[in-house]
Structure formats: structure tokens, C-alpha cells
């Protein structure tokens, strides 16, 4: 069997499958990052305020008071039994942490006062109350 050495085949780089894979990865990471942001906060109907500012400090701890009156620490979805201990541990770990109370419009004022009182008793120095812009 004779071989024809005059025919030279060039290797072909097929780039279309690589573009498809990169596009898929881009869409995957975009969708996953959006879902992480939405899962970060518990939905509450905040009261409106004229002087509301969107100011997030790096050491922010969210305390949420739901419409039913449950006081939740960070992203918890059930009422925290050891609420005071978690706050004290966070204050020992980071004394400059800013605690933000996010109270629903229809939340009992008694529960918001309980959260505020617990933060003060734990020695928290920086407390804010979250509201929506009007």
C-alpha cells in the first residue's frame, strides 16, 4: 500500500463547542449568584421612612421580627431558642458589629422592644432599625 505524502491535513480547532460550554457556565453562575442574594434575607414588610439610607456595613447582623412576632437571628427561619446566647457570642467575637432590627409593619411592638432590650443587655453598642424608602 503506497502512501501519498503530498496530501497534508491540517488539524482543525473547533471552537463552537467551547463557546457553548463557556456560555453555559456564565449563565449557571449568574443564576446561582442571584438565588444566593435572595436567600440571604427573610422577607418582611418594613415600614417606610423618609430618611432611609441603604448603608450596609461589613459586620452587619440582621435581627428580624416577623408579622407573627417571632424574633429571628440572621437567616434563621424558626424562632431562636438561644437568641441571647447567640448575640453575646457575636459581641465577644466582634465588638464592632452593627445589629440591624428588621421589624415587620404588623409585628407586635412588644417583640421589637424585646429584641432591642436583649441587644442592649448583651452589650451591643451599634443598633439600627431598618425601614424602606418612601
Outline the structure in words.
The chain is of the alpha/beta class. The chain has a domain at 48-133: Nucleotidyltransferase, domain 5. Helices cover 36% and strands 17% of the residues. The protein has three helices and six strands, in the order H-E-E-E-H-E-H-E-E. It has helices spanning 16-39, 83-93, 109-121; strands spanning 48-49, 60-65, 71-73, 98-103, 126-129, 132-133. It has a four-stranded mixed β-sheet with strand order 3-2-4-5, covered by helices on one side. The longest helix has 24 residues, at 16-39. It is elongated. The chain starts with 15 loop residues before the first helix and ends with a strand. The mean pLDDT is 81.
Characterize the main sheet: 4 strands, mixed
Any idea what the shape is? elongated
Biggest sheet strand order reads: 3-2-4-5
Strand content: 15-25%
